[in-house]
User: Fold these one by one.
Assistant:
Number 1:
Amino acid sequence: MSDSPRITRRSLFRGIGSVTVVAGCATPAKPEPQPAPGLAAATPPIDGVALGPGPAALRFTLNGATQTVEVAPSTTLLDLLRHQLNATGSKLVCDRGACGACTVLVGGVPRPSCMTLAHDVADAEVTTVEGLASAGKLSVLQQAFIDHDALQCGYCTSGMLMSCQALLARNGATDAAAVETAISGNLCRCGTYPNIVAAVLSAAKAGA
């Protein structure tokens, strides 16, 4: 008869249970963090301060006046105008460049300021609705909007004025189709499009 210890069913399960308990008490090794696929590993902070670009100097012309400000790279032109330069005529509505309420002129060209980074207008000429009036007197186009009841709630009005002003500067608004094309990127929730067209044609006739 062999002297080898006999393994019974009871002793086998008792041994497995002991190994399981010991393994459960062990502290598992923490895996090394891996960057997400396609992304480079983040630069570790120095002395607890995360690295990254800070505000930088920006110089441009706003409504004829030179502006020099410190602006973070991620700041939009609309945020700069409204929150740092107090030019609140440009409205934040959709924040996606779809409604036209934030339209300003950059070098005479209509641009959605909510989709334009502030640093993109470095050394450029920016005109907002505040720049249309002169010496406290409304421009011909602004007065035409009033005369033709071309504004109701007012949220779209500043953007509409800027798109129409760019049209008048280009060709003087020869017909209704030209006006409709110029304001195709501006949304009027009140539906005053016919009055807007009439106001622009009136301003064009008056030599705006």
Note: The chain has two domains: 54-131, 132-208.
Number 2:
Amino acid sequence: MQKQPDSPSLAGKVALVTGGSRGLGREMVLAFGRAGAHVIVASRNQESCVDLAREVAESTGRRALAQACHMGRWSDIQTLVDASYEEFGRIDVLVNNAGMAPLYPSLQEVSEDLFDKVVAVNLKGPFRLSALVGLRMVDGGGGSIINISSVAAVKPAPDDLPYAAAKAGLDTLTAGFALAYGPKVRVNSIMAGPFFTDISKSWDRAKFDEIVKAYPLRRGGEPTEIIGAALFLASDMSSFTTGSVLRVDGGMAVAR
């Protein structure tokens, strides 16, 4: 019988987080560093990546690489992978967190460009990055891939339909990659609910506060509340968990 660790440890591991410079990504980067991992901070803003990488190095003593990457561009993704392996020689944990959910006035007014960008960042990019890193994990010591999905995948609304469809596709990728890269690589989704990150600044808070009364926890989430699920799936504590979708949504998915 495999002995389970008493607490999540990533000592000696290397973790790559896309969309890692702010919001949920930032909290996961910091938590991984505190748990002992070297980290790769990837986002479109190089300066923000550099700032967070410096903070990780100074606060945890772990090595941190800052790498600008647009997840909708496969050439950027290849550059990210090359830079990561050149710096560390391995990736043990990959978190596909980068996403975008732009507003639009109506479904009829969704442009082809907007639709393509949403699908590219939320679905196409994670597919390519998982394919490249996952294969190297299989050839190496294994690893864990975590996709940050959304409750929109199961509760789509007219004002976020392209995003919801892309996140539903991401959950499908979770199952497919778990089959493709098992048994050495575990692949799971965190189905995130409404968190108070930068994106929440555009919410109608009065409307939101009324809506969340129907949720079991009756509130939105603080960014730090993603950490427990992320550490569980990244570490050996989830050694028998793959192909799963873990809801961290305050109960939104079951609300009526």
Note: The longest strand covers residues 143-150.
Number 3:
Amino acid sequence: MGKTFAEKILAKKAGLKEVVPGQIVTVKPEHLLTHDNTAAIIGKISADLDKYGVVDPNLSVIVIDHVVPASDEKTATNHKNIREFVKKFGIQNFFDAGEGICHQVIIEKGFAVPGTIVLGSDSHTCSYGALGVFSTGIDRTEAAALMLTGETWLKVPQSIKINLKGKFQPYVMAKDLILKIIGDIKADGANYCSVEFHGDIQNLTIDDRITIANMGIEMGAKAAVFPVDEIAEKYLDSIGVKKGSYEKIWTDPDAKYIQELEYDLTKLEPAVAKPHLVDNFAEIKEVEGIEIHQCLLGTCTNGRLSDLKVAANILKRKKIASSVRFLVLPASRSILSEAMNKGYIQTMVEAGAMVLPTGCGPCLGAHQGVLAPGERCLSTSNRNFKGRMGCKDAEIYLASPATVAASALYGKITNPRKEVG
């Protein structure tokens, strides 16, 4: 019987001929991601670190991104502790505040290599499945143990197959697709499953795939993965990960799934996730006209160059509504730089946008862009739980960059197709 992606890669990494869903395997991941929470993780094992050190200084990839620049003394102290840890133990892969959001940095810097396992102390580590990586989030205790031992256990997940047909119509984006999928499956519908994407993936850019994989956890998925095709190979080559240096692992044609779904991309409409759940799906026509007070464009979900380009094209030679604060949050320094070179940032600033540091900030309500009671934010981020942006009495709607940009012009949720004709 054929094997799924998860079964094949976990069997290989565990040194076994084959595995089955539910089986516990021991693996040695190629990399471990931690971010600002590195301070808390190393605090758990400070005595062990002093006695034994880290198992491998190349295992960890540490990115300071959640609260940058530091918002208070406690945060600044945590950042200082991380820098001292990096220096003391010779951690090779360290990216300080301002380099970007950890998930974008992992991808850009070539750590998300097809056929590898990357674990991270952040739930959106599943993003790297866009490049054929088995990537998933773990908790801080597991991360601490990994720093010391280099290995951990995983349970082999069951798998769900999602077949994609056709291509997006103008101003329908990958965010609309993943919100639709989560609305159908629900927030717990893929719990501890590996979700595989098949079909006409040649019609999805790498940016599209990252957006979709990033939100796999929002339906409970352990992993969300795409096969490595020519588009992925070309992207990997552009960042220095050469073809032939990695193994492309993908599912067998006769693999068995617990569920199979199909989506026709040509039939999708712009959409949102209404408060306070990511699976509270609605097409744009159901929510048009709802007043908003803040727009957030960016984050690890939709802060890439193509996202900024779409928004800039909509905002060009226009002004955002006086009642709206429009925040732009590029996912990395390199994206910010390229967006500046191409004029996207200038266009959005002229429209009235505020450009924030390349970090997580307002997405989790930790820093900059916190909402007030009674306010509504339309955001390209990945979560809209009550209190997510710092206020339990505010509301967050999730949408695509096109929808967010068009809505910013009017101070109310707006169909981007109407704005562009």
Note: The first strand starts at residue 24 and ends at 27.
